[in-house]
Specification:
The structure is a single chain. The chain is of the alpha/beta class. Helices cover about 40% and strands about 15% of the residues. The strands form four sheets. It has a six-stranded parallel sheet with strand order 3-2-4-5-7-6.
């Protein structure tokens, strides 16, 4: 029996356990689409290839297993921003390009583009299939590279002549591995001697802190992280801009390791004697491991599950190659063996500081007279969460909208607000991912409400993806922080430009809510702050894809204030 190369690709991905594909259907990809149809793998057709990529990324982050983004050769260029976003988040998305013919490669074939070279710096592995019989081999290799070590996206280019040609259905079955089903991910176990050095340093610490990074999520170790914080009285912080590890209502969670979005983290880090970064990178967000972020008096320990990630953290005082879950188990054994003597004083101090910070942030919200009767963005973010329940998903998108929402999430969590989970832009802080991530969250949690808080600029960047919500009957609620422009950029310009004004950042008054109504959804305009919470509740209860268009007054966020201040040098420079 022979099948087309595209069908062989679909069967190889099915064997790995792929249960969701996102695409913008194109002629180059038709054999693969036929294969997915035959394999009964769901395919969502999106209005743009970038949207397809963000949908695959969001679905992969939520479910911690690879989804597929399938695009044609010209669509590959559109998918690059989504590839970059997945790369920054270490999201193991499988990007597949139906590419120009291999037979005439280099001769100017129809829609020919060097997709393999372009994708290489944005993926862990970028490869072109050179013969149809190797399709299962390439899928197997790409899958293992995507999911093992530090995870990340991969890219497979399948030329159109191979896509359409026929090959033996059992291609490659005479070679190992004979079983090509998805296997358990390989985990690094710590060298006992290296582990002892780290445990000794932590055991002798009086003021330890933990900063949780990406790999804690990808190893499924967030519950163990919470247990370590609670039982050992170690304050836990989160690296900014990636999947939340602990609910903000959790007593062990203190906030972001970000001096501007969560001020008490500066005091904790500067006063700590041992700082343990688990599953993260010493990049710009952590000042590359240097002072003024980590003082010289703090012993900096990096625990990473892959050699690549550990070698990146060259500035650490001590490095440990270990899966995050295995290392957290070792910490918990200290407590159960009776070798842990740290009391709760240091931990309680951070709780007190968090409480004082929460009160100050709430007290500092400007009065209605100061805002001209409009909502402050922090009020907007707090109000949205107040309307939500324990099983609801929150997605945030946009520059200042994102930053104010991060602050609101910490405040609401401290006061006991519990949410099912939170998604937001990754390392690159890319505008326009919110609606796609919201759809992915609804696809994975159909019984939950999903609320996206988006700036007006962010929605204009990626709002076309809302059509997929209507098309697939995945109703989500989009709350738009409508301040009439790219407020994050305007605020930077007003502090930077000699004349103190902003330029080329304003929008006209856009009726986003009527746009949703025209598509068949629910829309509501909020101009009175008192109407916000009832409007969000009505939108969620409508059962439709909904928009709550909220008129707000733009305010500079603490992080933008810091990065544009001549007094504070910032890593953005």
């Amino acid at each position: 029996m022979k099948i087309r190369g595209g069908a062989l690709l679909a069967r190889a991905l099915q064997e790995k356990g792929v249960d969701q594909v996102f695409t913008l259907s194109g002629g180059f990809c038709n054999p693969a689409l036929e294969g997915f149809m035959q394999c009964e793998i769901p395919v969502i057709n999106s209005p743009h290839e970038q949207v397809a990529g963000h949908l695959a990324d969001g679905y992969t982050r939520i479910n911690r297993k690879p989804a597929v983004c399938l695009v044609g050769p010209e669509g590959f260029a559109n998918a690059i921003p989504a590839m970059m976003e997945a790369w920054g988040e270490r999201s193991p998305v499988i990007f597949v390009t139906g590419s120009s013919t291999l037979k005439r490669q280099g001769a100017g074939g129809f829609k020919e583009i060097n997709d393999v070279a372009i994708a290489e710096p944005l993926t862990k592995y970028s490869v072109q299939v050179t013969h149809g019989e190797r399709i299962p081999e390439v899928v197997d290799r790409a899958w293992k590279i995507a999911t093992n070590g530090y995870p990340g996206p991969v890219h497979i280019s399948l030329p159109v002549d191979i896509m359409f040609s026929s090959f033996d259905v059992d291609s490659g079955r005479d070679e190992r591995p004979f079983d090509r089903a998805s296997r358990h991910i390989h985990r690094a176990w710590p060298n006992p001697a290296d582990l002892k050095v780290v445990l000794d340093a932590v055991s002798n610490a009086q003021r330890p802190i933990i900063i949780g990074g990406h790999s804690v999520w990808w190893s499924g170790a967030e519950k163990k992280l919470e247990e370590v914080g609670r039982k050992l009285h170690i304050p836990i912080f989160n690296v900014p801009y990636h999947q939340k590890l602990l609910g903000e209502e959790n007593e062990a969670y203190m906030g972001l390791a970000d001096f501007h979005q969560y001020h008490p983290s500066k005091e904790a880090i500067h006063e700590s004697d041992v700082a343990i970064l688990i599953g993260g990178r010493l990049d710009n967000q952590l000042q590359f491991g240097n002072p003024h972020f980590f003082p010289e008096s703090t012993k900096l320990i990096c625990v990473n599950g892959s050699h690549e990630e550990l070698n990146f953290n060259r500035s650490a005082d001590i490095g440990l190659l270990s899966d995050p879950a295995a290392f957290l188990d070792a910490l918990l054994e200290l407590e159960s063996s009776g070798n842990w003597q740290l009391d709760s004083g240091w931990f309680d101090l951070q709780r007190e500081r968090r409480g004082a910070w929460v009160q100050k942030m709430v007290d500092d919200i400007p009065s209605r007279e100061e805002t001209g009767g409009k909502l402050h963005p922090l009020e907007l973010a707090l109000g949205v969460q107040e309307a939500m329940g324990d099983e609801d998903w929150l997605v945030i998108d946009g520059g200042n909208t994102h930053f104010w929402s991060e602050i609101a999430i910490n405040i609401a969590g401290y006061k006991g607000q519990k949410l099912a989970n939170i998604l937001h832009p990754g390392t690159f802080s890319m505008l326009g991912v919110g609606v796609s991530f919201g759809i992915a969250a609804k696809l994975s949690n159909r019984k939950s409400n999903v609320v996206v808080v988006s700036g007006d600029g962010a929605f204009l960047s990626g709002g076309l993806s809302i059509e997929a919500a209507f098309q697939e009957n995945l109703p989500i609620t989009v709350v738009i922080d409508n301040n009439g422009g790219l407020d994050c950029i305007s605020q930077q310009q007003e502090r930077m430009f000699d004349n103190g004004t902003h330029f080329a950042t304003d929008f006209r008054d856009i009726p986003f809510h009527t746009m949703f109504e025209g598509l068949g959804g629910y829309g509501e305009l909020v101009e009175d702050p008192a109407d916000l919470i009832p409007a969000v509740k009505r939108a969620m209860a409508s059962g439709k894809t909904a928009c709550v268009n909220v008129k707000t007054k733009g305010y500079i966020s603490p992080i933008v204030l810091a990065t544009t201040s001549k007094r504070d040098k910032a890593s953005i420079e």
